[in-house]
């Protein structure tokens, strides 16, 4: 036992030289790099866990609303009749209705109406429908050409849905005449 540690190869005098080996008790560069890489991978896995789900939920909610508006516009064109999307910001819901005012069946969830409820959907529960304005109404209609109208049947001048989740906000815009739908973070 030399140098204060137990090591067979370290601290032995090199043959023909009177100095000690430098490899006594240290780490190689490769070992250090491997440890740093492991810590980096662990940190990258921990970051999504530590970030709030609000940013993911608000983007998802905006995408869902945009897709549902596009769906209402598409079925209005394909069936040649008006369809409406009716928002209720107090209950955090919206639904798609036919021209008679009946909620249409959901195309994927068989046996259910096309109603989206943010409060009862765990994927969107942090998101609030902050404001809905389709020319001061909360209803947008799409005619057989896919053009947007307000609740009174007048051509849409402005369509904006504002969403909030914590400090995050997103806006879904519907353009007049064309019904083009866009999302602004």
What report would you give on this structure?
The strands form two sheets. A five-stranded antiparallel beta sheet has the order 3-2-1-5-6, with helices on one face. It has a four-stranded antiparallel beta sheet with strand order 4-7-8-9, with helices on one face. The protein starts with 28 loop residues before the first helix and ends with a strand. It has 185 residues and is of the alpha+beta class. Helix content is 26%, strand content 24%.
Secondary-structure map with pairings?
Layout: H1 29-50, H2 54-79, E1 83-88, E2 93-97, E3 115-117, E4 128-134, E5 139-142, E6 148-149, E7 159-165, E8 168-174, E9 181-184
Antiparallel strand pairs: 1-2, 1-5, 2-3, 4-7, 5-6, 7-8, 8-9
For the termini, the CA-CA separation is 67 Å
> Which CATH class of the largest domain applies here?
Alpha Beta
Q: Beta-strand percentage?
A: 15-25%
- Main beta sheet strand tally, sense and closure: 5 strands, antiparallel
Assign the CATH superfamily of the largest domain: minor pseudopilin epsh domain
Instruction: Enter the CATH topology name of the largest domain.
Output: minor pseudopilin epsh fold
Number of helices: 2
The low-confidence runs, each spanning 5 or more residues with pLDDT under 50, are none
What is the element string, with H for helices and E for strands?
A: HHEEEEEEEEE
Net shape: elongated
């Amino acid at each position: 036992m030399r140098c204060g540690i137990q090591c067979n190869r370290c601290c032995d005098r090199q043959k023909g030289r009177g100095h000690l080996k430098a490899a006594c008790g240290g780490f190689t560069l490769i070992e250090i790099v491997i440890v740093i890489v492991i810590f980096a991978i662990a940190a990258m896995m921990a970051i999504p866990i530590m970030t709030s789900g609000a940013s993911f939920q608000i983007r998802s909610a905006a995408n869902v609303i945009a897709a549902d508006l596009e769906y209402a516009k598409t079925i209005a064109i394909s069936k040649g009749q008006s369809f409406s999307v009716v928002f209720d910001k107090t209950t955090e819901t919206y639904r798609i209705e036919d021209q008679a005012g009946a909620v249409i069946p959901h195309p994927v969830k068989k046996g259910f109406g096309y109603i989206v409820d943010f409060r009862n959907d765990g994927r969107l529960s942090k998101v609030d429908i902050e404001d809905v304005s389709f020319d001061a109404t909360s209803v947008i209609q799409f005619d057989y050409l896919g053009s947007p109208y307000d609740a009174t049947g007048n051509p849409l001048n402005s369509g904006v849905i504002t969403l909030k989740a914590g400090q995050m906000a997103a806006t879904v815009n519907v353009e007049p005449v064309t019904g083009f739908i866009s999302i602004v973070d």
